[in-house]
Amino acid sequence: MKFARKDLLGLEDMSSEEIESILDTADSFVEISERPIKKVPVLRGLTVVNLFFEPSTRTRISFELAEKRLSADTVNISASSSSAVKGETLKDTAKNIEAMSIDMLVVRHSAPGAARYLADVLDCPVLNAGDGAHEHPTQALLDLFTVRKERGGIDGLKIAIVGDILHSRVARSNIWGFGKMGAEVALCGPPTLIPPGIESTGVRVHYNIEEVIPWADIIMLLRIQQERLEESYFPTIREYSELFGLDGEKMKHAKPDVMIMHPGPLNRGVEITPEVADGPRSVILKQVKYGLAVRMAALFLLSGGQFESEVTH
Amino acid sequence: MKLLIKRGRVIDPAQDLDQTCDVLIDGGVVAEVGASIEAADAEVIGATGLVVCPGLVDMHVHLREPGREDEETIESGARAAIHGGFTSVAAMPNTQPPTEGEEGVKFVLGKAREAGLARVFPIAAVSKGQQGGTLSEIGSAIRAGAVGISDDGYPVAASGLMRRALEYVKMFDRPVMAHCEDPGLSARGVMNEGGPSTMLGLRGMPGASEDVAVIRDIILTRLTGSRLHVCHVSTGTSLEFISRARTSGLKVTCEVTPHHLALTDEAVMTYDTNTKMKPPLRGKGEVAALRKGIEEGLVDAIASDHAPHSPEEKDQEFDLAPFGVIGLETTLGIVLTSLYHDGTVTLPDLVRLLSTNPARILGLPLGSLKPGSPADVTLLDPDAEWEIDPRNFFSKSRNTPFSGWKVKGKAITVIVEGRVLMRDGELKTPGARP
User: Residue B34: which pLDDT band, with cuts at 50, 70 and 90?
Assistant: First the structure.
């Protein structure tokens, strides 16, 4: 079976079969990073450009390592070093990069729809590494992958996503992803940070974290940003932390086998205390580890790779 | 030079007329409307199967001159108006520099006279430079020919200034044309706040941003006893308050655009920047309320809010693209298709919305075919089927959300002051498509 898409832009319009096949492909890539020589010639000769208009550590390194371990040639461009500051349009920047015969573009941008916009104007595959508050598909895929690995499946599980849902692309991609894979999704946060109409995606909404803690098999905390204070989404970090921060005390009401996830970067002591982030229920670093395999799978499939190909077995 | 329009369905709500008859034009004015007029020396325009109505008036357009002549000029806009069936347009002042004072108004009128196409009536700025600070020279502007005042494009955010504007303009009996928006509620928003904005991750502007401003302006209209015209109403709540204000005796009128009647915020789901405008396309409920308002006669006028933008400006990230869509050449087709052919309104209702009422609100001696009226006449075929193709526009811009739509109904012949500027769908004036 060939992966039929040119681009990976989001999970909203993906089928559960497609998601499943990416996760299956990722399964076979995990082992590569455990070898002494962490490199396979899957993308040898291909050039992948990582075009990042927003700061990113984890996602960018993850993509770059995934590309390098598949033997692709990689170029990293960040907003500060690109011509964006000289007034060049996004389209022109991307067209110029494509003119140098690249094979794939990974893009992170603050404008929702930016990845789709580039996918429409470029012939090469475009991988969305986060577009504003819209989607962050590889993050959701790696979250799904982590759950599948740790729990053996996703169907029927209950996941609570806690925090700034309004501004979160991770939340949106996960709502689609977990929903399609048969999980129940609850969102939790102050009403100011719950976007209008989100219930239409089939999720439930709670304003009290104590309601979701005993219910959830998985609790995913989202990063709270200092900037949100300026627009009065909540009064202080201290109050947010008191109401929604996950600490040892609140954890006492959680299921014994609950999984704690966080897409990073962590604000220790804000949405999550160190004892929870570093505790036995946390899979935060596993998410990072599996992220590599998932991104290798995505790059491989978009490059035209076949599922079940002999290279990966 | 006499013109005799034969055997059309003459619809003129101002004289409660809707019947098949003839219209005789002589010396730029309507000479006679009658069952069977004979005039041997007149040029005959056959109108069998067509609607003959007073020239259409688009009371809300942006012509971009001076300042952005690459997007539209007064001439190209006035030509697009004729092509779309409009004999008059009222031009908003948010040019660079804004239209204000005697000089600004005379500039627009001069350019319009040189073009000799649709009539162009300037609307002057409320505040100096449309900065929202202090009043611009409203009196000089109106004496020079401005038909109303507005800071459209921006709201008059300061309630004190809005109060003064309403109060001051009373002595000229002209309306303040209000762009109602509470910037505190719409700040940084790029589309309607609702399900689609949530899915797209785009920042929303709630309908409440408009409603709060509409209610404020109604209260200030009551305080001042002045005249308020609410531009581009996009919510049922605003319409409800406007209607209630009118019932209580306040002089409040309003307009709705074709795009707010024919499209919902679902149209934004592809991040098409030609669906980005202010106020934004609203949800299904609001669209239904607006259409019901049209059906019940709560809306005075339909206006395009024709807002040209260059392809370069629209061809970028949704967040960065400017607000606004064009409409002069699509309004009639959209309105006939989505309001008349679906049975929401009658043809006389549409003539009222597109000619009689806007002419009355702007205080123009137009919008009627009564003998002695200036001979501005639109002949339209309500059943002509065509496809909207921006390449055929006479506007300099192409930013329409209706590209590719198959519509029913278009202007066939357009006459301004007795001069036939479009005949059988062909423009009779020099000037090619850009």
Answer: very high
Q: Which domain holds residue B336?
A: 56-361
Instruction: Count how many pairs of residues, chain A against chain B, have C-beta atoms within 8 Å.
Output: 63
Chain B nearest-CA distance from A198, in A, is: 7
CA–CA gap between residue A300 and residue B306 (Å, rounded): 48
Comparing C-alpha atoms, which of B169, B176, B112 is closest to residue B138? Answer: B169
* Residues 184-213, chain B, touching A (beta carbon < 8 A): 193-204
Q: Are residues B8 and B146 in the same domain?
A: no
Q: Is residue B240 part of a domain?
A: yes
Which of B12, B151, B217, B305 is labelled catalytic? B305
Whether B269 and B323 share a structural domain: yes
Residues B69 and B193 in one domain: yes
Which of B185, B198, B205 best tests the A interface by mutation, with the highest count of A CBs <10 A?
B198
Q: Are residues B156 and B27 in the same domain?
A: no
Same domain, B202 and B330: yes
pLDDT in tens, A298-312: 999 999 875 444 444
Whether B280 and B409 map to the same domain: the answer is no
Angstroms from A171 CA to nearest CA on chain B: 11
Q: So what's the pLDDT on residue A306?
A: 56
Identify whether residues B69 and B35 lie together within a single domain: no
Per-residue pLDDT band for B415 (boundaries 50, 70, 90) equals: very high
For A279-297, write each residue's pLDDT tens digit. Answer: 999 999 999 999 999 999 9
For residue A205, the chain B residues in CB contact (below 8 A) are none
**Predicted TM-score (pTM) of this structure:** 0.94
Residue at B433 is within a domain: no
C-alpha torsion B338→B340→B343→B346, nearest 10: 150
CATH number at residue B30: 2.30.40.10
Could B202 and A112 be called an inter-chain contact, meaning their C-beta atoms sit closer than 8 Å? yes
Q: What is the mean pLDDT of chain B?
A: 97
Inside any domain, residue B224: yes
- Interface predicted TM-score of the whole assembly (ipTM), two decimals: 0.91
**CB contact set of A152 (below 8 Å; sequence gap of 6+):** none
Average pLDDT score, chain A: 93
Task: Work out the minimum CA distance from B157 to partner chain A, whole angstroms.
Answer: 19
Mutate to test the interface with A, among B193, B265, B271 (most CBs of A within 10 A): B271
Domains in chain A, CATH or no CATH each = 16-135+291-312 (3.40.50.1370), 137-287 (3.40.50.1370)
Q: Is B18 a catalytic residue?
A: no
Which member of A110, A114, A196 has the closest CB to residue B193? A196
Predicted pLDDT of residue B206: 98
pLDDT at A313 over 50: no
Return residues 287-346 of B near A (CB < 8 Å). Answer: 312, 315-320
Give the number of domains in chain B.
2
Q: Are A207 and A160 in contact (CB under 8 A)?
A: no
Residue-wise pLDDT tens digits, B90-136: 999 999 999 999 999 999 999 999 999 999 999 999 999 999 999 99
Which of B:347-386 have CB within 8 Å of A?
none
**Domain end (from B304, B333, B361):** B361
Q: Which residues of B touch A111 (CB under 8 A)?
A: 317-320
User: Are B278 and B175 within one domain?
Assistant: yes
Cβ within 8 Å, pair A134-B201 = yes
| Residue B368 forms part of a structural domain | no
Among candidate residues B327, B361, B395, the one where a domain is terminated: B361
Domain with B158 in it: what CATH number? 3.20.20.140
Please judge whether A132 and B319 are an interchain contact, meaning their C-beta atoms are less than 8 angstroms apart. yes
